[in-house]
Amino acid sequence: MDRRRLVIDTDPGVDDAVAILLAFASPEVEVVALTAVAGNVGLDKTALNARRLADLVTEDVIVAAGCAEPLSEPVTEESVVHGRDGLGDLEWSEPRTPLDPRHATEVIYEAALEGPLTLVAIGPLTNLAVALERHPDLETLVERVVIMGGASFEGNVTPAAEFNIWVDPEAARRVFAASWPITLMPLDLTHQAYLVDEDLAEMRSWSTTVGERCAGMLEPYAAFHDEWYGNRDVIMHDAMCVYELVSPGAISLQGVRLAVEVTGEHARGATFIDRRRVHADSVQRVGVHVDNDIFRRFLLDRLRQLDAP
Ligand code: BDR
Ligand code: CA
């Protein structure tokens, strides 16, 4: 089987962690690098978290750090949605996986030069935008870009804006304007995919390191969801990008035209997902529907097979 080569650009992030572990558990893809970006927490923490996650599953993946600040307005307050450390504040030992000395943008570009490449972007889009600026041919080299971000109906940071796009709307605008084929997984889709307490209990019952770490990270994330949404369903935003790649067809997609608002008193970071039929054959697509029962079973079955290398 030809394995699809992935670079996962990420700001781990508890749901990023699940997405990354799903990719490592999936024979359909080969993760060549994890590139960290500032987002859920600062870059020093997202890069450290990427190394911690790599330690759980492999001895052979590149981890590199990228941009510490969005293109224009800096984020002044760190989010605590994913805990102070970004992974639910568990104890971790010093990671074995080294930090690659290259900037994330160079790792992405070199991976694209080496062969067919899919970019999975599950944090703010700063690294991708800077990579495009430094290497304009990147948009023609990359086979596909799968992004978690945006919303048609309602944001989660402001009524208009979803977190990943809100952090760096200028970067999102550049990424959306490039010619590479994009599949976007917005909140309208990701809120259909969630784990419940029973799933966390199942993870603990495996008695594996991965099961114990996942349940441990997800527990405070469930508590946050309870406080914010009034129930403990843990939304699996970022895993949707990987699920689409390892189980093609499981998420129904629609051709669209993507735009992002970068100014405005209320609308900065809002995405405009033009679903009119005229865009049916567009290279830009959006995830529309996922069956959560099938997704949960798929995810748990895959993660159960993982344990420390
Ligand atoms: C996105 O924001 C982050 O908190 C999550 O990791 C996900 O990528 C959801 O809005
Ligand atoms: Ca994320």
Quick overview of this protein structure:
The protein has 309 residues and is an alpha/beta fold.
Write structural notes for this entry.
The protein is α/β, with parallel strands linked by helices. The chain has one domain (4-304): Inosine-uridine Nucleoside N-ribohydrolase, Chain A (Alpha-Beta Complex), CATH 3.90.245.10. The chain has twelve helices and twelve strands. The protein has helices spanning 14-24, 43-57, 104-114, 126-134, 138-141, 163-167, 169-177, 187-190, 197-205, 209-229, 239-246, 292-304, and strands at residues 4-10, 29-36, 62-65, 118-121, 144-148, 182-185, 194-195, 234-235, 251-255, 257-260, 271-274, 284-290. Strands 3-2-1-4-5-6-12-9 form an eight-stranded mixed sheet, sandwiched between helices. A two-stranded antiparallel ribbon has the order 7-8. Helix 1 packs parallel to helix 11 (239-246). It starts with a strand and ends in a 5-residue tail after the last helix. It binds beta-D-ribofuranose and calcium ion. Beta-D-ribofuranose binds next to helix 1 and helix 6.
CATH class: Alpha Beta
Give the low-confidence spans: none
| CATH A-level architecture | Alpha-Beta Complex
How many domains make up the coordinates? 1
Percentage beta strand? 15-25%
Total strand segments: 12
Helical content stands at 25-40%
Small molecules (ligands, ions, cofactors) in the structure? beta-D-ribofuranose, calcium ion
Order of helices and strands: EHEHEHEHHEHHEHEHHEHEEEEH
Gross morphology: globular
Question: What Rg do the Cα atoms give?
Answer: 18 Å
As an assembly, this protein is single chain
- SSE class: alpha/beta
CATH topology: Inosine-uridine Nucleoside N-ribohydrolase, Chain A
State the major sheet.
8 strands, mixed
Number of helices: 12
Mean pLDDT: 96
